[in-house]
Write a structure and sequence with these properties.
With 203 residues, the chain is of the alpha/beta class. It folds into two domains: 123 residues, 3-Layer(aba) Sandwich (Rossmann fold), CATH 3.40.50.10240; 72 residues, Thiamin pyrophosphokinase, thiamin-binding domain (Jelly Rolls, Sandwich), CATH 2.60.120.320. It is 15% helix and 36% strand. The protein is built from three helices and 13 strands; from the N terminus they run ββαββαβαββββββββ. Strands 1, 2, 3, 4, 5, 6, 7, 8, 9, 10, 11, 12 and 13 form a 13-stranded mixed sheet that branches. β6 and β7 form a beta hairpin. The longest helix is centred in the middle third of the chain and has 13 residues. The radius of gyration is 18 Å and the shape is elongated.
Length: 203
C-alpha cells in the first residue's frame, strides 16, 4: 500500500474518505491541523509544515511533528516531498481548494510539478479533479458531470463515453474549454497527445 491521505489548509471538507484503511499514511499541514484536522474523528500519522499556523503546545505529544522551514516552497510542496521520501505513489488531497483562490491556483501548479512522480487527486464536496495522464479511464461514470480543462493547451483529445465526444481536438485556455460534459456510459476514456489536461468529475 503506497497511498497517502493529505489534508491542506483550504476549505474544510464535509465529505471525508470512507476507507481509511486504504491509506498507509494520513497526514496534514500545520495550518490544516489548526483549522479542522484536530477535530476529525481519526488519528493522523504526523503533521508537517513551517509551524507558522499552529501553536505546537496544542498538539498532542503522540502526534509527530516534522518541521519544514524552507520558505521558498509551500507547505503542500514540502508535504509531497516528504511523502515521496516515504515511498508514496498516490496522494488523495482534501482541503486543497476553497478559501484563498491564489492558494488553490498554487496547489494546482504544485500538483503539475509533481505529476510525473506522484498520482495526485484533489477532492472537495462537489468533485474530484486531477491532471490526466495521456490515457485515463474513468469507471462508474454514467450520469456524472465531467469537465476537461487544458492547462493551458491540450492537443489531439479523444473521448469515449461522453454526451459530447471529442475526436482529435484541441482545447486552449481560455478560448476553448471542455466544461460540463456528461458521461453517458459507465466507462469514460480520455486520451490526448501534447500539453496538460485537468479532469474534473462530479461526486
Amino acid at each position: 500500500m503506497n497511498k497517502a491521505l493529505l489534508f491542506l489548509n483550504g476549505k474544510k471538507p464535509t465529505i471525508l474518505p470512507e476507507n481509511l484503511g486504504s491509506y498507509s499514511i494520513i497526514t496534514c499541514t500545520d495550518g490544516a491541523y489548526s483549522r479542522y484536522v484536530k477535530n476529525l474523528p481519526f488519528t493522523i500519522n504526523y503533521i508537517s509544515g513551517d509551524l507558522d499556523s499552529v501553536q505546537v503546545s496544542t498538539i498532542p505529544s503522540s502526534i509527530p511533528i516534522i518541521e519544514t522551514p524552507d520558505q521558498n516552497k509551500t507547505d503542500f510542496h514540502k508535504a509531497l516531498e516528504l511523502l515521496l521520501d516515504k515511498g508514496i505513489h498516490d496522494v488523495d488531497v482534501y482541503g486543497g481548494s476553497g478559501r484563498e483562490s491564489d492558494h488553490f491556483i498554487g496547489n494546482l501548479s504544485t500538483a503539475l510539478f509533481f505529476k510525473n512522480k506522484l498520482r495526485i487527486t484533489f477532492y472537495d464536496d462537489y468533485s474530484k479533479f486531477f491532471f490526466s495522464g495521456k490515457s485515463t479511464k474513468i469507471n462508474d461514470a454514467k450520469g456524472k458531470t465531467i469537465s476537461l480543462i487544458p492547462f493551458f493547451e491540450a492537443k489531439n483529445i479523444c473521448t469515449k463515453g461522453l454526451q459530447y465526444p471529442l475526436s482529435n481536438e484541441t482545447l486552449i485556455f481560455p478560448q476553448r474549454l471542455g466544461t460540463r460534459n456528461v458521461a453517458v456510459e459507465n466507462e469514460v476514456v480520455v486520451t490526448y497527445g501534447e500539453g496538460e489536461l485537468l479532469i474534473y468529475i462530479s461526486r
